[in-house]
Design goal:
mainly beta, eight-stranded antiparallel β-barrel, two-stranded antiparallel sheet, 14 strands, about 5% helix, globular
Length: about 190
């Protein structure tokens, strides 16, 4: 097999994050409009390449005031850093469907290496609708990627103190990315 090229379908690809709030619960947020590409040879997955861009201006937590605060310079500073990027540079196959993908994550203009635990969910030929017509079938593949980061590593340092020495927002943030990748036209998948 040779490298196959896939693109992330933005309507079905999203990133979610979760951080502890007020020491007692988690706040979750979503980032839609995730754009990305994957190049992979199924016979040599360790040579795969992945790139993704997240639109941080569209953060959604379900509470407009909190969303505005997250977009501000206290957190994501989207006026100066509207996107986040990930460029995968190393893939290690753990099992038939599990991988570790290591690369550079850039948030707020700060780049650090991060490893995502990736689960391959399979492939399927599906309809492909454009302008009200089914131009399919198109091959889709699914993946779920998870990691935990320290937000302070990326300059996301805002916080406040609550009673008994607690903080409003934890330094650790769990990240989950659900990817629906679509095989580029003209490509053949195994």
């Amino acid at each position: 097999m040779a490298m196959t090229k896939w693109f992330f379908e933005p309507g079905h690809t999203a990133a979610e994050f979760r951080a502890r709030h007020m020491m007692v619960t988690h706040v979750r947020g979503q980032l839609k409009n995730v754009q990305g590409t994957l190049e992979v040879d199924p016979d040599k997955p360790e040579e795969a390449r992945v790139e993704a861009t997240v639109d941080a201006t569209q953060v959604y937590t379900g509470q407009p005031q909190r969303d505005a605060h997250l977009r501000s310079a206290d957190f994501f500073d989207v006026d100066h850093h509207p996107t986040w990027t990930f460029v995968g540079s190393r893939v290690h196959q753990v099992s038939g469907i599990e991988f570790e993908v290591t690369g550079d994550l850039t948030v707020r203009g700060v780049t650090h290496p991060v490893t995502f635990d990736v689960t391959y969910l399979g492939q399927w030929d599906t309809p492909w609708w454009e302008d009200g017509r089914d131009l399919g079938p198109r091959r889709r593949a699914g993946f779920t990627a998870t990691t935990r980061i320290n937000r302070h590593d990326f300059g996301v340092n805002w916080n406040d103190v609550v009673g008994r020495g607690g903080v409003v927002v934890s330094p650790t943030v769990d990240v989950v990315v659900d990817v629906e990748a679509v095989l580029e036209p003209g490509e053949t998948a195994a």
